[in-house]
Hints:
The structure is a single chain. By secondary structure, the chain is an alpha+beta fold. The protein folds into four domains: 16-134, Roll (Nuclear Transport Factor 2, Chain: A), CATH 3.10.450.50; 254-359; 360-493 and 615-642, Roll (Nuclear Transport Factor 2, Chain: A), CATH 3.10.450; 495-598, no CATH class. The chain is built from 20 helices and 24 strands. The chain has a six-stranded mixed β-sheet with strand order 1-2-3-4-5-6. The chain has a five-stranded antiparallel β-sheet with strand order 11-12-13-14-15. A hairpin with a 3-residue loop joins strand 8 (209-215) and strand 9 (219-228).
Amino acid sequence: MMLKNGFSLVSGLLILVSVTGCASMPEMQTIEQFAQAMEKEDIKSLKHHTTMKFSKVALRDKSSLDDLKVLKIPTGEATIVEIKDVSENHKKVVVEVGKNKKKLLYELKKVTKTGEWVVDDIYINQKHKNLNVMKSVSEQMDLLLTIREFVDAWENGNRDDILASTDGEFKETLDQLQPAFLAKLAKRVSGNSSKSKWKKPDAQLDKNIAIIRLDRRSGQMIITMKLTDGKWKATDVAVESRVDKQHVKSAKKEARMLLAVSNFLDAYNQNDKVALKKYSADKFYQGSLNFGDLKVAPLPDSNVAAADYELKTEGDLANFITQNNGKMVNLSILKIESDEMDVPDQYLIEEVTLFKDHGNQQITLTSLFSSRAITLLFNEALTKHDIKILGFSSTPDLSTRVWDKVSPNLVAQLPVDDIAQPGFEILDIDFNGSVTKVHARQGNLPLTYILRDHLGQLLVDDIELDLQGRPASVKATLELLVQVQNYAYDMHENNIRNLQRHSSRDFNELVWRQVDRVPKTVYPIPELLMSELTSMELNENQGLARIKLGDDQRGATVLIKKQHDEYVVDDIMIHSDKVASRYVSSKKELRLSMAANSGILRQNAAYQATYTISSDTKPEEITPISIPEVEPAAFEVPQQEP
């Protein structure tokens, strides 16, 4: 940014004069006395030969003489070329100094009590961009001393001094910061050295705005100042670091980021979701914090976080990294730019990432809370047999293979008793990319929910458990059980078309393509198919499955095979103690019935089962399902991804 009337404090030369001629003139005497005090570095004498206004501004500190030296004021012969009486007690004296006849303008005023003339200010004629500009020494000294006071305040880290050196939004933000946050920010701005060597600053001025560049041991400090009510105050400061490349692009912006972090952490630890909504990005709040149990993921409070943190900024994004009980926590900060000039930009927390296992595992609060919420929702839907919610909380694969195939009339008899017992509890959660494993306990049964990311949303894809005699995958188990129940319902309803669709080629050729109604047998096949699952053997490579339902006295074993990439029923072996083999093929029984009844049953002669499947059954009339006792086998976390 180029500023009008820019000048270098180094190049602004105040010429001390060795006065020649007319030494008796009061004007020359005043200038000579001022020059001698400067040469002797006598601050007391300088104050005596200057007005109160000049002393308070340019000589207000013990370091004033050092700052006058920074201006590099040379000496030389001087000649008065003009004296103008502004009033009885006010004179303007133009002096030419040195070989180049540098012009200085002294403003002298008379002390009323003593009648002595003293220096009120000195103006130096400077050229800048072809313009001759007169610069006031008191203004330059005021700015130079203010810069020194600003640097000292930030190096010492005194909160009151830091606030006194700033103004406007910058001061308001710093004032709200936790003391530890402010102290750390001050250290970043001032550098590692508590007392860096004072070097010559360079300033550019434009009316009441100044931008000062000051070389420091660790880099360069750029201070933006504003003149308000006659006083220079910092409105921002930046640091270009040469040592560690830890630049501070804007201390004001960093302070606002730190304030956003502090407010978020305080609201989080107070479980104040109203405040959290204010300090969080909307997507983060609505998709995580709004329904999350904050107690399951403790975060450090602002005091602890401020003690040891790192702030990394890049564009409109920043990361605040701190520790919580020895584990790293990262708060992602998002900048929301304001459309209105008078409204400052807003900084909100966009996400929180927790690092486990020495940083090898990363968990976002969105994933953590979403995984817990979707798991609890899914489990509750299982208990209530709520197909709509189960579909909503499942991946497309689980919905397609299971929930979409459940007959509306069989919802109440959904075979999920083993995984819908009372006393559900989440024990631990493992995150691995797009797959999340939620380890839980259902009553006495350990199980693992497998969640997958689908279009940015975590959904249940499967449940793994270790029960003897059945697959670990609940999805694979339910896919076949639902098909068996649907098969039973289709037999009950004489739906030959569906039976043909879900039967093997051999079953269709022997039975279903030859009848328009289900042949009547002495065995209640549909009712037996609704018996409780005893065991299931599944060989996905060969596309074969054997499902045992009920017991050896009353039940059935369903033989299933994969045909055209779809599992179909190949036969139903009826359990019976009335035959030597204890198993009777339903194909054989149906064929015998067909032969005894000309191969086709009439509608009024159809077998009416006594089990609960019925198209007339209303949801409110369904008898509650009794939950069997299930003794869990040893539980092991699956080693392979589902």
